Amino acid sequence: MTSKELTQQIFKKKSFLCVGLDTDLDRIPTYLLSEEDPVFSFNKAIIDATHKYCVAYKPNIAFYEAIGVDGWKALKKTVDYLHSEYPEIYTIADAKRGDIGNTSRMYAKAFFEDLGFDSVTVAPYMGKDSVEPFLEFTNKHTILLALTSNEGAYDFQTLQTDNEELYKQVIKTSKGWNNSENLMYVVGATKAEYLADIRKIIPENFLLVPGVGAQGGSLEEVCKYGITKNVGLLVNSSRKIIYASDSSNFAEIAGAKAEALQIQMAQELEKL
Ligand SMILES: O=c1ccn([C@@H]2O[C@H](COP(=O)(O)O)[C@@H](O)[C@H]2O)c(=O)[nH]1
């Protein structure tokens, strides 16, 4: 999916919500554990109940890798289900990959070609040759970690290097890489006050903003500093939606949580 198509979906659905599928066997309703594929059953129920209120889903790959082959199968089934049942939905593999060039190319093939995701998160630490293999794919996005939502972001990302924070250098430098039009950036909702500065460097690029909900980030603050006339935001919430209840109507309750965020987002879009 192109950025333009994603923007069209955002205005159509009045939502820039991304639902995080951080599916953990220890947290899903116990009655699902007797199903043949409990992870997929949980994801399918969540997707069916929330798809009206969001434009994207973001499975965090760690949760699937942690349970081995079964996890990979459930991940593939989830992405295939999304593409077949809800082709308008944008998919993000939150994998945080990046390696020397030929290895990155294999990661890119895995997430873009084999699994068929629209985008993948990538760590910028290994530099240009580790990121460009992802950028070569047409109509696919590479979402570079810029300023992450966790406390440890202050360990390196905000350090001054050449009189400028490292995360700003990551954004500025990556803008000069081949096929940089395929870049999006991760900025944590817990760092909303940095968004005004970030928008001076990248006024148009999409930002993936995790941290609303369980991590305490504010949607209002994110919009105040980060929204553009084309929106340019995908705001993710995972645990607060998918684990809102562990009862038999967990999906319905997840749907209500997603709808509440969508209503807030519609109000923000009205202001544009
Ligand atoms: O800076 C980052 C980058 C990625 N994440 C991921 O997003 C979700 C957030 O989950 P919540 O339950 O809504 O807190 C999760 O998959 C993280 O690994 C992030 O939080 N911050």
UniProtKB/TrEMBL annotation:
SUPFAM superfamilies: Ribulose-phoshate binding barrel. It catalyses: orotidine 5'-phosphate + H(+) = UMP + CO2. GO terms for molecular function: orotidine-5'-phosphate decarboxylase activity. It comes from the Bacteria. Residues 16-254 form the Orotidine 5'-phosphate decarboxylase domain. SMART domains: OMPdecase (SM00934). Pathway: Pyrimidine metabolism; UMP biosynthesis via de novo pathway; UMP from orotate: step 2/2. Signal peptide: none annotated. Its EC number is 4.1.1.23. Keywords: Decarboxylase, Lyase, Pyrimidine biosynthesis. Pfam families: OMPdecase. PANTHER family: OROTIDINE 5'-PHOSPHATE DECARBOXYLASE. Belongs to the OMP decarboxylase family. Type 2 subfamily. NCBIfam families: pyrF_sub2. This is Orotidine-5'-phosphate decarboxylase. It comes from Gramella jeungdoensis.
